[in-house]
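Much of our argument rests on the idea that a fold can be written as discrete symbols. In the encoding step, the backbone of a single protein was reduced to a row of integers, each denoting a local shape. We regard such an encoding as a compact summary of how the chain folds. The record that follows shows the chain in one-letter code together with its fold in token form:
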Amino acid sequence: MNEKEVCLFVQNKAKNDFNILKKWTDYSLKKESESTFYEELERLIQKHIQEKLDNDFNGLLRFLYQEDISEKKIKAVFDGSFSDEVAQKITKLYIERCQEKYNTRKAFENKDEIGDW
């Protein structure tokens, strides 16, 4: 698994999902390390998650459902934590799910479309 490819996939997914990061093109390639990249990405996404949490809770739940984030994991996030902690945990779930989607797509990318059912 190529970490730069994963970072780029997650970055592009966040661009589309949150309509943010317009100036963030090729940002992952400029960062020194993967951890720095994800820290910056979490900070940017968390702001949007927090806004949804405060102003459009139902919209946030719809979004998490559309992203296919486990309901069990989402319920675990709401464990009496403060709002900013909830936003941080949801952000991490979102990024983890994006990474899972990338891995799944990569695993099935090279499958022959004819006869490989």
